[in-house]
Amino acid sequence: MVNIQLSATVNVTAFSARQKVTGFVVDEISTQMHGGEPVLVMGEQICWRVSIILSLPPSGDRGEVGAIDVDVETGQLLISPSLVQEIESRAEYLVAVS
């Protein structure tokens, strides 16, 4: 039997995490992206994992191009330049094959 216990103060709601991620991707990557449904992830840090969805008018959502984690205690977005580059590359690929 394995018993694992984790503890964290959840200062950031799923709704707030999604808003933070959407704001970041719109400001820093593309206005054609938004945050998807957050999922609680437990690891070294407990965070909300928010998928990044590419949307193209007039067809709407085209698919997921990545994810950004948000620390549940601080609200910090856990991003790096390489993560942003991966999201951009996946979006370009999705547009090309659509």
Can you describe what's shown?
The structure is a single chain. This protein has 98 residues and is an alpha+beta fold. It has 2 helices and 4 strands, in the order H-E-E-E-E-H. It has a 4-stranded antiparallel beta sheet with strand order 1-2-3-4. It is elongated and about 50 Å long. It starts with 13 loop residues before the first helix and ends with a helix. The relative contact order is 0.21.
Task: Tally the structural domains.
Answer: 1
Radius of gyration over all CA atoms, rounded? 15 Å
Q: Termini distance?
A: 48 Å
Shape from CA axes? elongated
**Would you identify the regions where 5 or more consecutive residues have pLDDT less than 50?**
none
- By secondary-structure content and strand pairing, the structural class works out as alpha+beta
Helix content: 25-40%
How would you state the average pLDDT, rounded?
92
Strand content: 35-45%
Series of H and E elements? HEEEEH
Largest sheet: 4 strands, antiparallel
- Count of strand segments: 4
Give a brief rundown of this model.
This protein is an alpha+beta fold and 98 residues long.
Structure characteristics:
four-stranded antiparallel sheet; 2 helices; elongated; single chain; 98 residues; alpha+beta
Task: Write the topology of this structure.
Blueprint: H1 14-28, E1 33-42, E2 46-56, E3 60-71, E4 77-78, H2 81-97
Antiparallel strand pairs: 1-2, 2-3, 3-4
